[in-house]
Amino acid sequence: MNHREEHRQRGSAIVEVLVSMLLFSIGVLGLVRVLAVAVRDAGEVEYRAVAATVADESIARMWVDRGNLASYAVVDAVVPQLPAGTRTVAVNGNVVTVTVNWQPPGLPAEREHVAVATIAGN
C-alpha cells in the first residue's frame, strides 16, 4: 500500500466519524425535544387536575348548601393554585356553571375548565 492510499483511507475514516457524530447529535437533540414536550405536558396535566378539583369542590359546597345557591355566584375569584388562575361561578336557577381559567407559563393561550351541574333537592 502506498502513501497516497493510506492518506485516502484515513480521510474516509474521518468522514465516517464525522457523519456518525452528526447522526448521534441529531438523535440526542431529538431525545431532548421529546423530554421537553413530556415535561411541558406533565405540567399541563397537573394544572388541569387542579382546575377540575377547584370546580368540583365549588360544586360540592353548593350541594351541601342547596338553599343558598344564588349566594355562590362569583365573577373572577382568584385561584392561587394556578398561574393567573380565576374561578367564575354562574347560577341559573338550580343549574350552576363553574369555569376555571389559567395561563400556563410560556404558552400563548389561556386554558379553561368548565363544570356544569344541576343541583336538585331530595
Characterize the structure shown.
It is a single chain. This protein has a four-stranded antiparallel β-sheet, covered by helices on one side. The chain has one helix spanning 3-64, and strands spanning 74-79, 85-92, 95-102, 111-118. It is rod-shaped and about 100 Å long. The chain has 122 residues and is an alpha+beta fold.
Q: Main attributes?
A:
122 residues; four-stranded antiparallel β-sheet; 4 strands
Please give a quick description of this structure.
The chain has 122 residues and is an alpha+beta fold. It has one helix and four strands, in the order H-E-E-E-E. Strand 2 and strand 3 form a beta hairpin.
Task: Summarize the SSE layout with pairings.
Blueprint: H1 3-64, E1 74-79, E2 85-92, E3 95-102, E4 111-118
Antiparallel strand pairs: 1-2, 2-3, 3-4
Shape: rod-shaped
Structural class: alpha+beta
Report the mean per-residue pLDDT as an integer. 88
Q: How many strand units?
A: 4
Q: Quote the beta fraction.
A: 15-25%
Record the strand order, biggest sheet.
1-2-3-4
Helix content: 40-55%
What is the rounded Rg? Answer: 29 Å
| Residue windows where pLDDT falls under 50 for at least 5 positions | none
Distance separating the two termini: 98 Å
